[in-house]
């Protein structure tokens, strides 16, 4: 009996995963966790422990993932909160990533940016 229940639960989980994979995406904004996963490769560059390396790939993918105004505002707010704890040297490096990676974003990476004005 327990084996049958496990099999049924596995079937339900597989079915749920399949449904979720083909369901249309919702308009939810990007989470800060998602933003951080995109820019994690930038950490060595920003902290001065490595080259810019794959940072540009992650930053470019993040820009492409931020399709809506809500997404861009979420990304802005997340980057703003992450950079608050940076020293001036680290902050300057983070601020320069769009330029170095040749990525055009509609706001400045700064703790003083008003993310509600990002479109």
From TrEMBL:
The keyword Cell membrane does not apply. Residues 1-28 form the signal peptide. It comes from the Eukaryota. Residues 32-115 form the Bifunctional inhibitor/plant lipid transfer protein/seed storage helical domain. Belongs to the plant LTP family. SMART domains: AAI (SM00499). This is Non-specific lipid-transfer protein. Pfam families: Tryp_alpha_amyl (PF00234). The keyword Signal applies. Keywords: Lipid-binding, Signal, Transport. GO terms for molecular function: lipid binding. Plant non-specific lipid-transfer proteins transfer phospholipids as well as galactolipids across membranes. May play a role in wax or cutin deposition in the cell walls of expanding epidermal cells and certain secretory tissues.
């Amino acid at each position: 009996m327990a084996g049958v229940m496990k099999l049924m639960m596995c079937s339900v989980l597989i079915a749920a995963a399949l449904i979720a994979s083909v369901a249309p995406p919702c308009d939810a904004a990007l989470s800060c966790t998602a933003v951080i996963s995109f820019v994690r490769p930038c950490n060595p560059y920003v902290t001065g422990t490595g080259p810019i390396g794959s940072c540009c790939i992650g930053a470019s993918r993040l820009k492409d993932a931020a399709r809506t105004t809500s997404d861009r505002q979420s990304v802005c707010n997340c980057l703003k909160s992450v950079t608050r704890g940076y020293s001036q040297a680290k902050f300057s490096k983070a601020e320069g990533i769009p330029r170095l990676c040749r990525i055009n974003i509609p706001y400045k990476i700064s703790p003083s940016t008003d993310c509600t004005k990002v479109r």
